[in-house]
Each structure stands twice: as C-alpha cells, then as structure tokens.
Write a structure and sequence with these properties.
alpha+beta, 24% strand, Translation Initiation Factor IF3, C8orf32 fold, 45% helix, 5-stranded mixed beta sheet, 13 helices, 3 domains, 4-stranded mixed beta sheet
Amino acid sequence: MRSWAIKRTGERRLLAGGLVLSLLLSGCSALLERDYASVTPHNAVPATEGDPSILRADSYQELVNALIYFVSGGMEEGTVRLYTSAEDVEPFLSDACLEVIQEDPLGAYCVEFIKYTVDPVVAYSEAQVSITYRRTREQVASIVQATGVTAIRSELKSALTSFASERVLRISYFEEDETYIQDLARQTYYDVPACALGMPDISVSIYPSAGRQRIVEILLSYPLDRSELERRRDALAGVLADLAWDLTGLPGLPAAAAHALLELGTYDPEGGNTVSDLFDTGSASSEGLALAYAALCQQLELPCQVARGTLEEEPHFWNVVQTGEGWRHIDLSAMGRAEAPGEEPEGGLLYTDLALQERGYQWEEGSLPSCAEH
C-alpha cells in the first residue's frame, strides 16, 4: 500500500506540474494574442479572410479608411463588413462616401461618385461598394509628393523642360490658391530659358478646397506642338553650345556674351518673345533678348537671371548677371537701341540698382539679387 501511495502521489505531482506548465504556456499564448490584438485595431483596412476586396470596419473612421484604401488601389468594387449598430450603418456609409469624395485629397481628385448597397447578416452588415472614377490609373500613379516651394518649383521645371502637359502634386500643409501656383509656374518658365519657347497657358485646380494635404493639378497648354518644341529646343542647344565654345576663356565674359548675341540679331520692340525668335528671325523683343542672354549664360555656367519690371512705366525685360564686382544689371535691348547694333549705350553696359533706377527701370522688391556698390 505504501508503494502504491507513493506512486499515486508522484502521479498527482506529475499531473499538477503538467497542469501548471499547461497554464503557463496557455498564459504566454494568451499574452501573445493580447499583444497581437492590441495592434489589430490600428490596422486601418483589415482584410477579411485574406481577400483585399473584403474589408472589416468596426467604426466610422475604419469605414472611411476602407473606402480610401479602395480608392488608393483604383478598385471599382469592394465589400465592407460593418460590425456596428444596425441604425448606424446607413448614416455611416452616406457620410463616409461624402467625406472621401469631398475631403480626402485623392478622393476629391479622382472619384466621380461612390454607390453602395447593404445586406444585413447575422453578426454584421455587408456593404457592396461601387466606385466611378474621373481619372485614369496612369494619372493617379503619376502623382508626385512635393513638400515646400523648392520641390514644387523642381517639378514645374521638369514639366517645362520636357514640355509636359500635366503635373499633379500632393502637397502637405499647402494653404495657397491657384493664382500662387500659376505665378510660380510663370516664374519657373524664366528659370529654364533654353526651353522657354512660348509661355504656356496654365490652368490649376486644387483638391480639396482646404485641408492639411491637398492635390494640385497643373495643366500646361503650349503655343506649339510638342514635337516642334523639342525640335527647336534641340536646335537651340547646338547654337548655344557653339557660341559658348567661342566665348570660353574670354575676359569680360558678361559683356562678351551680350555682344556675341547681338551680332546674330537685333532688338525689335515688336519682335518675338522667345530665344529661338532671335536666331530664326534675326530680331527679338526685350523678353526674347533677355531669355537668349540667360540661356547663353547658363551654357557658360555664368550665374544669370531674367529680370521683369518696367522701363518708363512700360513692361520690360532685362538681366542681372554675376560679375567680378558682384551682381549687375544688363539690358541687351538698350544695346540694340544704340546707334550701332551691339554698341554699348551711354553710361556703360553693367549697372547697379541705383544707376538702373535713375534710368527709369523699376522692379518688384526682393525679386532680384542685390546689385549694389561694394
């Protein structure tokens, strides 16, 4: 009996130990499950049974996130299983569809409308969602994230140098309006003078009208076909390269570049406004001359900027260029108005701010580098 009792006691201890071990293991498993469950609610678009077109939503915000998920993937149909009160289903769906179309940047940009039907199931309500788009998948895929003015200008420069007809940007903390983007695009046009072959018409739409993140659609319509613009750009590149080769190493490069251009064409107040006009027709307006000079300076790696303002209260263009004495104004149209084409006007060729203002020039404060005496 004693040996039997010992055996039974041992079995009990073994069973107790196994039970404790089982409880410990199940406790670890439960802890792991709780850790996992603590992450799951943060999943904005939990898929049901691994199917990305069937999502679960336990709240209004999860429903909104599910619809945004469908839109982001360009999906035309999807299913959302709503684990909410039956009386909340219809107002949740109506408000969520409206929010995605009116307040979400991507939804406001690319969605025409969202329709849905609802079927009640025992534990949830199943919404069949149908989305109609007004943008192509390619347009949505081409959206570029841009933060700050520098990034926006970079994208505009890329569009203008390639004669692209469209740029769509997703911008954070953007509080400006359409006019701001149009002005920025026009400023950028003068930053790429070798491709400035006609100012495009610029149309801007912003989606939505307010918010921390917005999508900005920029449409560019050029005065010539893209193939012709590319042909002129390539031809111009060859001319500028030849001119720069002849000028490289010469003293007084800013003045030498101006004289070289005016040997090829003259100033005409009624002339064309692009770089190619000077070379193709032999004359150009103050805008065309300023763009030609800026394009040649870029080829020479000589810092230069197109200046826009007025001369005797009339719209006028000229340049500011980096010299050994600092930034200076230079106006090729003034040289073209001299008695002999290319001859330096009375008073010299390069001017400080004060000297140019004394001659009747005006420009927006802060728009140009300071051209002061040292």
